[in-house]
Amino acid sequence: MKFKQIDINCFKSFPDQISFPIDKGLTGIVGPNGCGKSNIVEALKWVMGETSAKSLRGAGMEDVIFNGTSDRPSKNFCEVTLKLDSDGKKSISENLGNIEVRRRLEKDKGSKYFLNGKEVRAKDIHILFADLSTGPHSPSMVSQGRVGNLITAKPTDRRAILEEAA
Ligand code: ATP
């Protein structure tokens, strides 16, 4: 399975639509503190079905919607689209090959998920990513501070992390 592109619209610090291509080889995001690097990773977790606002550094899920700045009004929705190639992996979904997963959140209305443009249940998205051996809690997503935690962890805690990854 390969991630190919993330499109972000009104999510956290991105009031306008941005497209973030993930090409072959290494892709890096470079920028000063607070420019939104972690927000891009959180957009990836969110579109894969993250349900915990806390793990997206928010108090409630609507905190992921762009909340305005001194010269930009806040928005009342946000949307993230993930384009991926299932790379021959099978899923219960009929849509293998190139897949497009979209999550849209509107204020007071909750989240909607779309698979190749068709509305589906959150559960279908969870199953799809589980079948592709990934998801918002994949151990291959190593967030800020986790490497430090791993180094300073007690041997038993480190064992639990390594077993989860294995
Ligand atoms: P660092 O290098 O310090 O880890 P970073 O580049 O990873 O920083 P982020 O933590 O992704 O930066 O982004 C933080 C910025 O996102 C802050 O300026 C914060 O105000 C902004 N931000 C977070 N949520 C929202 C929101 N809902 N609306 C607007 N801006 C937001």
Hetero groups: adenosine-5'-triphosphate
Give the total of beta strands.
Answer: 6
Largest sheet: 6 strands, antiparallel
The Rg value, from CA coordinates, equals 17 Å
Ends apart, CA distance between termini: 18 Å
What is the string of SSEs from the N terminus onward?
EEHEEEEHHH
Structural class: alpha+beta
Number of helices: 4
Overall pLDDT score: 91
The neighbouring-strand order within the major sheet is 2-1-3-4-5-6
Q: Tell me, what's the shape?
A: globular
Low-confidence stretches: none
> Proportion of β residues?
15-25%
Helix content: 10-25%
Task: Give structural notes.
- The protein has 166 residues and is α+β, with helices and mostly antiparallel strands.
- It has 4 helices and 6 strands; from the N terminus they run ββαββββααα.
- The chain has a 6-stranded antiparallel sheet.
- β5 and β6 form a beta hairpin.
- It is globular, with a radius of gyration of 17 Å.
- The two termini are 18 Å apart.
- The structure holds adenosine-5'-triphosphate (ATP).
Task: Describe the structure using short key phrases.
alpha+beta; single chain; six-stranded antiparallel sheet; 166 residues; binds adenosine-5'-triphosphate; 6 strands
Short description, anyone?
It is built from four helices and six strands; from the N terminus they run E-E-H-E-E-E-E-H-H-H.
List the helices and strands and how they pair.
Blueprint: E1 2-9, E2 18-21, H1 37-47, E3 77-85, E4 98-106, E5 110-115, E6 118-120, H2 122-131, H3 146-152, H4 155-165
The structure holds adenosine-5'-triphosphate.
